[in-house]
Amino acid sequence: MKHYDKVKEIIAGKAELCVVTKRHSVEEIMPFYEAGERIFGENHVQDLTAKARVMPDDIQWQMIGHLQTNKVRQLAPYAARIQSLDSLKLAKEINKECARINKVMPCFAEFHLALEDENKTGLAAAEAVEFIRACREYPYVKIEGIMAMGPHTEDEAEIRRIFEQGHELFLSLQKEFGADQIRYLSMGMSDDYPIAVDCGSNMVRIGTYLFTEDGE
Ligand SMILES: *Cc1c(COP(=O)(O)O)cnc(C)c1O
Fold first, then answer.
1. Half-sphere exposure of 31 (CA within 13 A, CB side)
2. What is the pLDDT of residue 114?
3. Nearest 5°: CA angle at 151, between 75 and 125?
4. Which of 35, 62, 98, 206 is the most buried (most CB within 10 A)?
5. Is the CB of 65 inside a 6 Å radius of any atom of ligand 1?
6. What's the 208 CA to ligand 1 centre distance in angstroms?
7. How far does residue 204's CA lie from ligand 1's centre (Å)?
8. Quick check: CB of 206 below 6 Å from ligand 1?
């Protein structure tokens, strides 16, 4: 796990690692568990619940993909956090389903910061305060941070510009709601995590890079 060691070195003391296990088998994932990782991310409800059922109980499964309201009931018992909260309709459904099982669900509000992502999922930075304020009316939804993706480009300056926007949004929300409430800035994937960490991310979500070795 050469890339794993490299990632751990780069994020040391700065960011937590969410190992993105999508498309990988339990057998492939277990070495990361054995190395001490407990935060694993999946982007489909079916895959998350299937893995959660057979893997150790102390894994904190993160839902990181777009979540449909009709899948919330199935997901709620298994997710330790929903990083992809992108609408009030979804917050309302999470609140309803988590009330049924008496579980307060930690969530990140997901933002689209890159312009090219305009028609993708995620909230706009301009609606952040209003959105989080509205979510706080739901007792079973606990917003504890934000999630954002970098732009699909190899232009480092552009990636940095977007991640800096994410960090500014994070700081402004901490100012508004308290740094003890808004604790996480989830930014950075295989191709851009060193830049994200440099820009203040404290949780990176990495899949591809961790599951390949040099030369693959
Ligand atoms: C797949 C995925 C990742 C990880 O992407 P890699 O490029 O494989 O590291 C991170 N975040 C989200 C939301 C994803 O869907």
1. 11
2. 77
3. 70
4. 62
5. yes
6. 8
7. 9
8. yes
Task: Check whether 14 has a pLDDT greater than 80.
Answer: yes
Calculate mean pLDDT across residues 135-152: 96
Question: Residue 1's pLDDT band (boundaries 50, 70, 90)?
Answer: confident
* Ligand 1 atom 13, closest CA: 64
Write the CB contacts of 201 (distance below 8 Å, at least 6 apart in sequence): 14, 15, 163, 166, 167, 185, 186, 187, 188, 193
Ligand 1 pocket, 207 CB below 6 A?
A: yes
What's the gap in Å between 131 CA and the centre of ligand 1? Answer: 24
pLDDT of residue 95: 98
- d(CA 37, ligand 1 centre) in Å: 17
pTM, two decimals, is: 0.96
Question: Could you give all domains of the chain from N- to C-terminal order, each with its CATH number?
Answer: 4-211 (3.20.20.10)
What is the C-alpha radius of gyration for the chain, rounded to an integer number of angstroms?
17
